[in-house]
Amino acid sequence: MKPATPKTELVTARDYLKGLLYTPEEVRQWLAEEAFPFAKHSGEFGWLLRNARFQDGVGGSTTVYTYGSLDERITIHYRERPCRINTYGDSFTQCHQVSDGETWQEVLAAHLQEPIRNFGVGGWSVYQAYRRMLKEEQRVPAKYIIFNIFDDDHFRNLDSWRNIRVPKHERFIEPTLPYVVVNAKEGRFEERPNPCPTRESVYKLCDLDWTVDAFKDDFSLRIMLAHLNAKTGNPERAFVETLKLATTHGVVTRIDTSERLSQAANQMHQQSAYYSSQRIVEKIEAFAREQRKQVLYVLSCPATSVERFIQTGVRQDNIFVEYMQRHGLTVVDLLAAHASDFARFKGELKDYLAHYFIGHYTPAGNFFCAQAVKSRLVEMLEPKPLPYQPARE
Fold this sequence. Notes:
This protein is an alpha/beta fold. The protein has a single domain, classed as SGNH hydrolase (Rossmann fold). Helix content is 42%, strand content 13%. The chain is built from 15 helices and 13 strands. The strands form five sheets. Strands 6-5-7-10-11 form a five-stranded parallel sheet, sandwiched between helices. It has a two-stranded antiparallel sheet with strand order 1-2. A two-stranded antiparallel sheet has the order 3-4.
């Protein structure tokens, strides 16, 4: 008879958070911009970006990132002309891993012969991008908005402290951020501010008692604990806690094995994440109607999602895509665009993906994105950009 797998003690919120704490010196260095060079503290948004050079570009090249007075990535093409297009989103909007001038916004600007502003910030959620849109559309309003939503952005909406779900990186301290609390079953949607809005308050992330009190009931933390306790073959108490959470969120399931525990956690996480983005899109659309703006949504994804979709036809975000279609929103779906493009490709899938992706898009990937967006954008623009006006003799 095979011996039973020994069970460990239940991993608690305190156990988990203890491993996430920053040191006072790490916080000091980040706030002083002496370390973690990717971003700087923002009480309003969690973080904004810093001028930087990273050796993370195509062919091992160094990429150059420059930001303007509005913390936007600098505009190069036609920057002296009036701007009627603002773009918002995460690193696929910011265009991480390519230098200034190689972004899809600059490719489009060169083609349309008019400037396009880039307010993308790496690591941001749909909610952070929405909040940035509200601010920038007061300072530098544009009639047309391109709002980019990446695979993981839905889940980021629910994060109050990114380190709960993502390990600290040598370039990025993964701080707290504004987030939302949702319950699809109850129709609940609550906006919450950054838990550490001041520079001084960031030091609270060095204090175990404070973090436990602040995050012990955090939704993302409870999801992470469910997965962790499932992996360790953990006790029935984890089943009970996750079942309570699942019932609250309308997930009907039986949780009596580690596998079912993890499945229930995934189901809750996905349901809540996509529901949160749907509610944020509602707010974006309401704002656009009130301000008489038009929004073009761009759905972007990593190479792994393209590979899975081409090989299996499966995409995780179906429920969100169907929502966008059902509401007649103007959308450019880059996952579908890549699948269509690969159907004409003569080589192997790995070679196709290597051409367009190095984590984020290569310069070729940014050109692909610009080409995919171009037609829908031109349809919206009135008057048409100069290249789409009749030629004059």
